[in-house]
Amino acid sequence: MICLGIEGTAHTVGVGIVDQDCKVMANLTKMIDGSKGGIHPREAANHHAENVVPLMHEAVAKAGIAYDDIGLVAFSQGPGLGPCLRTVATAARALSLSLGVDLVGVNHCVAHLEIGRKVTGCTDPTLLYASGGNTQVIAYAGGRYRVFGETLDVGIGNMLDKFGRSVGLPFPSGPQLERLAREGKELIDLPYSVKGMDVAFSGILTAALQLHKQGKRLEDLCFSLQETCFAMLVEVTERAMAHVEKNEVLLGGGVVQNKRLQEMVRIMVEERGARMFVPPGSLCVDNGAMIAWTGLIMNKSGLKTRLEDSVVNQRFRTDEVDLPWMKA
Ligand code: AMP
Ligand code: MG
Question: Among 3.30.420.40, 3.40.50.300, 3.20.20.140, 3.90.1010.10, what is the CATH number of 122-281?
Fold first, then answer.
């Protein structure tokens, strides 16, 4: 069975085509231009509406298949920005109806976890999911993927992008910030904010921007932002691992492409005698292949989404998802 998956929770619209062995036959993404100031949900939705059909055609061509070869259509049902979600849901409904194949609505966070499990070969990981809009630590417990810690305000990627935009870096700023951080010499004190199992980033952003105005070196600020924020993520991830007694860490989300974050997680897991797993970058960022793959395993367990149940869910919680494939 071949599944076409459409991602569109936030800044990126993506179309992936994947077979039942998780061979990624095509995985194309298009991101909005966020350089002028954040994501405007309506504008992002228009961007996705303009690009989703051309991306589908391109993906089908790239996969070397015909539309009739597609046996399943999956889409990101949430969590995310309402207008974006509705746009890709509409495209997915139309495609599944016109092909006469099942439709599956996929939880975006669960998709990050499932594609990571499949391509890295870990089995029961604690996922550190650090992306633009989301920052969560997720693990399987009591029959569900549960969120053990998360951001109380913005996603870490959004915070890095906001900082970058304010100091004149291109969007998305993460990669550039990582480069500048390598030139950092001084560790500047920034508010380290772990609250129980949760993290918060907006205070750090405010502090870093103030220090920038006061003339602190940009390289030192980038370095200090990374050191402080990543230490927070590693602390919460380690605590979750200890709590659920798991010895695998899976990384997901665009921010985990950061080599310093990977290094810090690696040090932590090595000290615990655990292991770290990192999917390739194209499967870490928001993408259609992860939606397609999760759609396939859901459908294999007998799940499909009726049209009347395909309404999107902006606040779709990770632990709302029933996981029959984990119990099998
Ligand atoms: P996602 O939301 O998962 O698609 O990932 C996009 C986010 O990842 C953006 O906020 C980027 O700034 C961030 N990002 C990408 N590469 C890096 C990097 N090397 N270091 C830090 N953040 C990154
Ligand atoms: Mg994501």
Answer: 3.30.420.40
Domain-wise residue ranges, the chain: 2-112+283-327, 122-281
**Which residues line ion ligand 2, judged by CB < 5 Å?**
131, 286
- Mutational test site, ligand 1, from 13, 255, 256, 258, max ligand atoms within 8 Å of CB: 255
- DSSP H stretches of helix in 102-246: 108-120, 156-166, 174-181, 202-213, 218-244
The secondary structure of 46-89 as a DSSP string is: HHHHHHHHHHHHHHHHHHT--GGGEEEEEEEEESS-HHHHHHHH
Would you say residue 210 has pLDDT above 90? Answer: yes
Farthest CA pair distance, the chain: 61
| Mean pLDDT of the region 168-183 | 96
Name the 3-class secondary structure at 30: strand
Backbone φ, ψ for residue 215 (5° rounding): 100, 10
Residue 33 — very low, low, confident or very high, per pLDDT cuts 50/70/90?
confident
- Summarised one tens digit per residue, pLDDT across range 213-243 is 999 999 999 999 999 999 999 999 999 999 9
* Domain 2-112+283-327: homologous superfamily in CATH: ATPase, nucleotide binding domain (3.30.420.40)
Which DSSP letter does residue 151 get? Answer: B
Element (H, E) at 281: helix 281-284
Cα angle, residue 232 at apex, residues 229 and 236 outer, rounded to 5°: 145
Average pLDDT over the chain reads: 96
SS3 96: helix
Q: Is the CB of 257 under 6 A from ligand 1?
A: yes
Question: 99, exposed or middle or buried, with CB in 10 Å at 0-12, 13-18, 19+?
Answer: middle
**285: Cβ below 6 Å to ligand 1?**
yes
Say how far apart CA 46 and CA 56 lie, in whole Å. Answer: 16
